Amino acid sequence: MKIAIGSDERTNLTDRVLAELKQRGHEVILFGSLAENDPEIDWPVSCSKVASAVVTQKADEGIVFCWTGTGASIAANKVSGIRAALCHDAETARGARIWNHANVLVLSLRATTEAIAKEILDTWFSTPFSEDEWNLLQIKRIKQLEEKV
After folding, report:
1. Which of 10, 49, 98, 126 could form a disulfide with 31 if both were Cys (CB 3.0 to 4.6 A apart)?
2. Considering 63, 66, 84, 104, which one is annotated as catalytic?
3. 10-residue block means of pLDDT along the chain (149 residues)?
4. CA distance 30 to 82
């Protein structure tokens, strides 16, 4: 799987997540401070680049970081077709995948430990989207909201 990943800051957490993704056999596309020559490292830009890579199918999914994760969530979710979820634990990641069909994982650089990040990644990649009729209706309604704008 191709994973677009971006952050405004490179930290032990971002390096650990990158190593974990590579260990799992994923190909990574780097943005912001994680890329060698990306002059645009601010979180609104790096997160929107990740989101754009996902909606244009240059990447299958994305992961973005910022200090709290809130700004990264907001920036990624401004891109139509993105359902970015700020996850502080594995159960939130599970719900984001099942009920929200989240395609961008958001992690807080401040609040996420490396151990919790691994648990979140385990759950994120092992949890399929729900295909039940009620849930699909909810996703359809989200898409309708995007079309109204």
Report:
1. 49
2. 66
3. 97 98 98 92 96 98 98 97 98 97 98 98 97 95 87
4. 18
Q: Taking the complete model, does pTM exceed 0.70, yes or no?
A: yes
Nearest to 11 by CA among 136, 120, 107: 107
Tell me how far apart the alpha carbons of residues 72 and 22 are, in angstroms, rounded to a whole number: 22
| 8 CB-near residues (< 8 Å, 6+ apart) | 32, 33, 41, 42, 43, 46, 65, 66
The whole-angstrom separation of Cα 124 and Cα 93 is 6
Query: 47 in helix, strand or coil?
Result: helix
* Calpha distance 26→106 (Å, rounded): 17
Active site residue 87: no
